[in-house]
Amino acid sequence: MPNKKFLVVYILMPMLILVVFLFSLASGSNGISLIDVINVLFSNADDNISLIIRQVRFPRVIIACVIGAGLAASGCVFQAILKNPLADPFTLGISGGAAFGTTASFVFGFASITSFFTPFCAFIGVMISVFVVYCLSMQKRFNSNSMILSGVVVSYVFSAAVMLMFALSSANNIQTAFIWLMGNFSTFDERLLPFVIVVVIVGIIVLSLFGNIINAISLGDEKSKTIGINVEKNIKFLFLTASFITAVTVSVCGIIGFVGLMIPHIMRKIVGANNILLIPASAFAGAIFLPLCDTLSRVLLAPILIPIGATTSIIGGSFFVWLLLKSRKSMS
Amino acid sequence: MIRIENISAGYLNKEVLKNISCDIEQKDFFGIIGKNGAGKSTLLKILCDLLNPYSGNIYIDGKNIKSFSKKDFAKTISFLPQYVDTSLSFTVSEFVMFGRYPYMNIFKVPSNNDYTVTKKVMDFLNITDFLERKINELSDGEKQKVLIAQVLAQETDIIVFDEPISHLDIGNQNDILEILRDLNEKYNKTIILTLHDLNIAGEFCNKLALMENGSIYRQGTPEEVLNYKDIERVYNTTVIVKTNPISNKPYVIPVSKNKIKTG
Fold it and tell me: Could you report the predicted ipTM of this complex, rounded to two decimals?
């Protein structure tokens, strides 16, 4: 049985990623076919089509894959260490911090200086929120409840600050800030791409290697301590690592909800609760799901671009309604 | 041998254990009894280094438990708490493997020896026929055996249980207790457990400690501890103590207050 699951996760899912990758490169409004895509990837043609594919779609699909993987894997880890199936990468106030940083960069005009400033400000915002949550939950014992509580508090404070900035600002790029907040792949800075790829992939590998320890932590404090696990130290490390991955993704592409909540849920149903398999499986699934969503938001109302955050939230929301209805049916 | 020396402990500002001292010999089957809130579970937590005492020390074979590394401590003493999260869908064999964590490297990759030990343990407990089932789909009795398997996989000389049988039916209770007795007699394990059922305590334990309000009110053999005067005083009720004709151990029968008046 476990071997079968390993095959599914490590062979089937990467193959699916490849298929989705090619499909996403091909779909769009320019009548590019799958064959064109493959031709472009394996030749050095210099026509219009290859320009669109290489310079517009390729980075976009790559970043969608990487960010989907990062959000899904860190969501999986947050659910495990917070012992809460409703946790996601944004439960602990990261989205609040990112929104704060971004809004500040637009309202105070940093964004117009250089495009590099928005991700930078978003990252600073996230780091502030992570730091505050960390310090707040350190006050007592470092446990899941105090972390969630601190995260909720930080979220509220930051969203109040964001609203205040929107209300008091007369800057005319608030619309841009708003679009950014809903997550988008159109305006990210390509120079950041290698950095994001490295951080997310290394992060996911580290988290996956800690899968067994995360398993042990999920047994409950008393049990995991008596099998020799330093629970607090590991939770701190995992929290900071998963937060860092989320911070990087959010800084580049804004707040993309539901991926980190929904993907681990689905994958848990398929591969089971063992994190050593669940974390990489979630990462792969995220790398399949997000490019598909992005393609959908490009194609569905073309030429209007639906913000990716809206697409994932609509799909995620409907998924949970379905889940709720299904479980109610099976209960009655 | 375990020496508990002048332990005082509690949570926040509430003192639960008051200056407790007691010795537990190697190979003891040591039962801790007493009312709810007397401090039984807290004493176990202190013993397993899950809670820091206000004052006092605990020595295992002359070595202070505070001087153990976490891993070495987990190879010395294992603990089955009242609550272990079994809601996630791990398989039984995955779940038992957690007990081997003190023996594994930083990323907890099992070695061949780890597989051999868990196999041996699951054979001993007769749970091999459901080792691929999910832990959250087992009955309470089966689950408790799996939890005990996990504890045994730790291969410690001292095993501590916090009310291991309180939620089981009488058949499963006896099953579990016979397993513990086997471990104690055949495998020379020191067993320390809290119990609510005085008759089971009298039947299986060779030493008892009766706790009241954070102190040990009386300790000794079941015959010494289970006498009607001490029990009536500590539990504030009326009982009769008889001797089990087969095992010659004391057993305790509650008496309704109405019956005393009319009879």
Answer: 0.87
